[in-house]
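Ticket #4471: complex job returned nothing on first submit. Input attached below:
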Amino acid sequence: MLFDINPSAAVPIYRQIIDQVRRMVAGGLLKPGDELPSVRSVAAQHAVNPMTVSKAYSLLEAEGLAMRQRGVGMVIAQRQPVRELPDRLELLRPSLQAAAQHARQLEIPMRDALALFKNELEGDKQ
Amino acid sequence: MTMTQPQLIPPLAAMSDDPVLLEDVTLAYGDIIALNNASLRLPTGSVVGLAGSNGAGKSSLIRCLLGLTLPQSGRIRLLGEDPRELSDAARARLGYVPQTPELIEWMKVDQHLDYIGAFYPDWDAARVADWCAKWDLPPRQKVAGLSLGQKQKLSLLLALGHAPQLLVLDEPVASFDPLMRREFMRTLFDETPDRTVLISSHLLSDLERVISHLVLMKNGRVLLVDEWDALNENLRRVVSPIRLPSGPGVLAQHTGSEDTTAVIDTRQFPLSDLPSGARQVMAMNLDELFVELMS
Amino acid sequence: MNMSTQATSQAVMHAREHSHWRVYLTIFRQLPVASWLFSGLLVLFMFALVATQVFAAMRLTTVVFGWSWNVLLFVGLGLGKATSDLWGSDSRRLVPDYHRRLMRVVTVTALAIWSTIPLTYWLGSVDRDGMSWVGGVWLWSYGLLGLSFIWGFFVTRKMHWLARVLMMSFALLPWWALVGYAPFREWLFSPLAPAWPGYTPINLLSLLLGPHNWPLFFARRMPAVQEAAHCSSLARIEQRVRTGTALDGFVMRELLQFFHAKSRLRPEFRVCPPALLGWLWGPLAMALFVGVFAKIGILYLAIVAPTLAPSMALLTAITPLSASIGRKSLGRYTLLPGAAHRRELPAWLTRRYFAVCAAVIAFLWLPSLLVAIWAEIPAAVIGRFVAALLLSLAGATALQIFVLPGKTTVLSTPTVFLTVFVGTIAAVNAALIVNDAGARLVFAGVAVSIATSTVLYLWGLRRWKTIDLGG
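Support reply: We reran it on our side without changes. The output follows.
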C-alpha cells in the first residue's frame, strides 16, 4: 500500500496520511485487519521524518481507526468507530475547503460551483 | 511591508537537557548586527529547519552555538556544556557539516575518513564504507579532485560516521542533485534514535519533508519558532479590505493600494475575528510562508 | 546479563579498544604524507649533497652546507607544514581531542629528530669550516625562499607549474652556483661595491624574492579557507573576515589609522596589511637572529644549524597553536573604535603557553650546547650566543603575537611584557645599524623586503578590491 504524500502541500504530512487512511477505510479500500506499512518504510520511501509518520499512526490509533499489533505493526481495527453523518461530513471538509478556495480564486459563481460538485457526485454513482 | 513586533510563539518545551540552548545571543561585527538577542531551544529528537534570507544570521547562529564565533553577549549551551570549553565526550556526540566543506585536500577519500574517524571512539568504518559505495564516492580518489557535490558528501560522512546525537548542518545539500538530497534526508534518520538535527537550508521543499520544528530568522532575530505541523495548520494568509488590528496573532501585514495581505496565526487570531469582506483565507506551504514573512 | 547491560559493556569494551596509540599512529602516518611536497625537494638536496661531498673530497670545492643543516631544515619544514596543514579548520576544532593529540605527535616527532642531532653533527662536522656571516645571511634568504615558495604554492593553487619550476630552480641555484660556471659564480657571490661587502647579487636577489609576497602577487582570488587554512596568515585573516571574526592587531590599527585616517575599515584594508605583516614576521625575526649573531661575531653554523632547524620547526608548529589560543581571550575590550570585538584569553593559559615554549626551546638547544662544550667553544661565547638566541626567539614570538591577527591583547600583562621585548630588540638592532656595516646590510635587505612587500601589497590591493568578501 502506498501513501500519496506531497510535502509541499499546504496540509501537514501527518494529516495527509491520516486523511488518506480515513478515506481508504471509509471507501473500503482498507479492510479491518489490513496492515499499514511500517513507519520506517513510509519514512524511507518518501524521505520524510519517521516521527511524522508515527505521529499520524498514533492519532489514527487514538481515533480507534487503527491498532498496534505486536509483531505486525499497525493494522486497521476490527471494529471501526461508528461514524455518524456529522463525523463523515467533517472528513469531507478539508477537500471542500480547498475546492472552495480554488473556486474563489477562479472567481467561479457559487451556483456554477455547486452545480459542478453535484455533477461530480452524480457522475461517481454511475 | 510593515512587520509587527516579532511574534515569538511560545518557545519549545524547555527541558534541562535540551541539546541546544541559546538565550539572548547578540553578535555584531562593527555596525553590522548579525544576531540580535536571538534565543532558541531545541528539544532532544527534534529535527529543526533553520530558514531565513541571506544574511538573516543563520550561519552566525550556528557558529555561535558551536563556539566557533564568540558573541558579545548571551548564554549558550551545547549538549549541556559551554561551547567554548566543549568536553571531548560532547564532541564525540556532535556532528557538524560546515557551509563549505573543510577538507584536507591532499588526502584520499578513504584516508581522510580513516584519519578523522580515528579520533572517534564510535566510528563505524564499515557503515561509512557502505555509504561511500552507495553515494558513489570513490574511496581512492584524492579529495582535491572531487567535485563540489562529492566534497559535500565526504563532509557529510565525516559528520555522520560516529552516529552523532546532535547533527548541525549549515546548508549541507546545496550541491546535491534531487536524488542525493532524498538519500541524504533518509540518512538523517538512519538508526540513531533521538537524534537532534539542526539544518539550515534554502531548499525549503527539502526541509518540509523532514522537519519537526521550524525556526525562521530575519535580520538577526529569531522571528518564529514552532512545530512545523502546527504552523502549517494554523498560519493563514488572508486578504482583507482593512488593516487588521496589530497584536498577537498577526505576524505580518502588507497594505497595498486596495487591500491588506496579512499572515495570521489562527490560534491567537481566530478566523471569526476577521473583518467582513476578508477573503482568500489560504493555508501556506513553507515556500509561501517564507515569501510572506520575509519579503 | 540482559541486553542493555551487554550493549553497555560492549560499548565500554569498544571504547577501550579505541586506544590512544592507534589515534596517534594514524596521525603520525599522515605526517610524512602531509609533507610530501618536500620529498621531491629533499631528494634533490640529497643528490646535491652527495655531489657536493664528492666534489669536496675531490678538492674541487668547499662544502658550505652539511648534512645536518639540510636534513634538519627540511624535516623541520616538512613537519611544520604538516602540522599547519592538519591543524586546519573549524570543523576539526569540533573533533574530540584533535589538536592536543596532533601536537603531542608533532612534539614527539620533533624530539625524535632532535635526538639525532649529535649524529648528523658528526656526519656533517665539516659544517664548521668556511662559513662567514655573509654566508649566514645568504643562507637565511635561501631558507626563506624555500618557505615562501612552498607557502606560495599552497596559497595559489592555480600556479602549480610555476611554483614548482621556481621552487626547483631556487633549490638548485646554490649548488649550481658552487659548482657551476666559475666567472658567473664569482659575479654572483662578489660584492657590487667594495664598501658594501654584503651586497652581492645573490644576496640582493634572495632578499628581493625572500618575503612571502608571491602569494599576494599571484593570487587570482583570495585563497579559500579550507585550502590554506593555516599555511598563510592571509587565509586565516580571510577566514576571520568571512566569518566576521576579523581582528586587527593594535599595531595594524595604529598604522591603518595613520595612513587611512579611518576608524572603520573596508574589508580589504582589514585583510591586506595584517596579512602582509604576518608574512614579514619571519624575515624580520630571522634578520634579528643573523644581525645579532653577526655583531657578536659567533656565527658558528655548527651550533646554529642544528639549533635553528628544530627551532624553526617548533616555531612553525607553534604558530597555529598560538593562533588557536588567540581565539579564546581575556575579557572584553574594543580593538576598533565602535566595534566590540571580544576575545578571551585566560592569563594562566598565556603564561603556560610561554612557559611551554621556553621549556621546549631550551630543551631543543641542550644538545647544541653539549656539542659546543665538546667542541671547546669558550663559555663566554656560548653565553653570548645563548643570550642572543633567547632574545631573537623572544623577538620572533613577540612579533608573531603582535602581528598575527586575533592574538592581540591590549594592555594586558603579556602585552606589556612583549612590548618590552620588542622594544629591547628594536634598540639593539638600531644600535647595530649605526655601528656595523654587516648589520646595515641585513637591515637594508629587510628594507628592500618591506619596500617590495609594500609595492606588491598596493598592487594586490587593487585587485582585491573587486573581491567579494561576503560569505
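Chain B touches chain C through 45 residues (CB under 8 Å). Closing as resolved unless it happens again.
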